[in-house]
Amino acid sequence: MDVQFGNEQRGIQSATALKAVLTEAAEHQALVFLVGDGGTLTVGVGHPTHAVLLFYNPKAGGPPLHGVGDSTADSAAELQPPLTFDGRLFFDRCALPARQAHRAAQFFFESGGGLLDSIVWEPEPTVMTSLTTEPGSLA
């Protein structure tokens, strides 16, 4: 399985190597991409208490998914510090305990792309845009 974060890409062969990469990336509050045959799991690491999980498998044809930590959390960031990875702010509802996210990454690695059942996964919201052209307008 390949791991990408920042400008680095590495192949990992063991759970110990995965743990080392997650620990190293956490020094920078970063997104780590685990890329395998079963899709890509993105783990936001480096927040003092929480992490985020995103999953995408274009081969399966389903939508991208994100893990839900607290479905009742307000959309405004209330965690301190905010849930930010690689400069991207995430909603508090996506905040999972860091240990749970690390277990999910471990499971993804060991199972060759499986998602941990103890996490609630929901589709990423889609942004819909439409272009309206009226007679006489340039489009």
Question: Can you put this structure into words, describing what you see?
Answer:
This protein is of the alpha+beta class and 139 residues long. The protein is 19% helix and 31% strand. The protein has helices at residues 15-26, 98-111; strands at 2-5, 8-11, 30-36, 39-45, 50-56, 65-68, 84-85, 88-89, 96-97, 120-123. Strands 1, 2, 3, 4, 5, 6, 9 and 10 form an eight-stranded antiparallel beta sheet that branches. A hairpin with a 4-residue loop joins β4 and β5.
Strand content: 25-35%
Number of strands: 10
Q: What is the average per-residue confidence, as pLDDT, rounded to a whole number?
A: 87
The number of helices is 2
Shape: globular
Helix/strand-derived category reads: alpha+beta
Major sheet attributes: 8 strands, antiparallel
Helix content: 10-25%
For the termini, the CA-CA separation is: 45 Å
**SSE order, one letter for each helix or strand:** EEHEEEEEEEHE
Low-confidence stretches: none
**Gyration radius, in Å:** 17 Å
